[in-house]
Amino acid sequence: MRILIIEKDEELSKSLNDVLTSQNYQCDIAENINDARYMLDIRNYDLVLFSWDQSDKTGIEIIAEIKKEAHKTSVIVLSDRLGKDNEIEALRGGADDFIRKPLDFDILLVRVEAKLRFGASNIIEIDELIINPEEEKIIYEGEEIELKGKPFEVLTHLAMHKDQIVSKEQLLDAIWEEPELVTPNVIEVAINQIRQKMDKPLDISTIETVRRRGYRFCFPKKIS
Description:
Elements: E1 2-6, H1 10-21, E2 26-30, H2 33-42, E3 47-51, H3 61-69, E4 74-79, H4 84-92, E5 97-100, H5 105-120, E6 124-126, E7 129-132, E8 137-140, E9 143-145, H6 149-160, H7 168-175, H8 185-202, E10 204-210, E11 214-222
Parallel strand pairs: 1-2, 1-3, 3-4, 4-5
Antiparallel strand pairs: 6-7, 7-8, 8-9, 10-11
């Protein structure tokens, strides 16, 4: 699971990173909104921790941007703003949770785990295709499809970002624990297995190759 931390306080961002990586989460840090937008453009995140404090001149528009591009990405707002009006504004702005500072890291970890668990439990249903990430199960027209391991994870990640172009680098970051130790060719192998074990036998097309950009999950439709 990959998390983006948007926090200008260097000491706090480091503490957040240390706590989360100790629980085997992959983390990136953005010190400001512009850096965050750049990170969000090049990577897919399961969750974003967004610091929204009294001193911030910018609003919470970034939440709407995140949700527009990746609606399944959870956003937790971390804030020192007092009063319930700020919490209401953040939640109405698209945030999935609101945690007040100073942070209790034990509580934060539980809330992060809950949000990620909820997202991972979402069953994807598109036409006659059902993908159950929690049980690593695929069903098409009532029949279970045998696709496991990395090919299943690649298919699921693309399905969760339906209609978006996902690059090889984004897939590596999202699925492989140490992406720097593998080559992009492993993505091609996984895609090929999806097509050989699933698309070809069922006469459907689920993944489109977008030249020089990556892959896109397409609505299943008959090839012939």
